[in-house]
Amino acid sequence: ASGQHYAPIARWNVLSPLCSLLRHSSSVVRARVSNALGNLFKFSGFFYKPFDALHALPALIAILRDSDPDVRKYAAFAVGNLVFHSDYFYMQAKGALPLL
Questions:
Q1: Residue 74's Cα: distance from chain center in Å?
Q2: Residue 21 gets which letter from DSSP?
Q3: CA 43 to chain centre
Q4: Residue 11: per-residue pLDDT
Q5: How far is CA 16 from the centre of its chain?
Q6: How many Å apart are CA 25 and CA 99, to the nearest integer?
């Protein structure tokens, strides 16, 4: 998702359903959701506060330990992009560092 599309994406309220799928039983779904979140965080911090309000970071960090390598890869992509644009999540995400 290009940064220019963030406002319309936000209006669709996709963040909450995506975050709820981080705990899905299918590793394919967890991987795809992590990839989607990573793309939402890729260009700016636009979604940081809405993501924070959902308290979804622990679920994202938890799947860095997933048994599926694709889930771990895309979760690392999402966490990396989440802390790239500002220090907003630094303290909350520091527990993820050993897992990266």
A1: 9
A2: G
A3: 13
A4: 87
A5: 11
A6: 21
Residue type, 58: P
Q: How far apart are CA 88 and CA 52, in angstroms?
A: 9
- The per-residue pLDDT for range 58-93, each reduced to its tens digit, is 999 999 999 999 999 999 999 988 888 778 776 667
Angle 56-31-73 from CA coordinates, rounded to 5°: 95
- Most distant CA atoms of the chain, gap in Å: 35
Cβ atoms of 66 and 27 within 8 Å: the answer is: yes
Cα–Cα–Cα angle for 60, 27, 71, nearest 5°? 45
What's the 3-state SS for 8-19?
Answer: HHHHCCCHHHHH
**Tokens at residue 6, please?**
């963030």
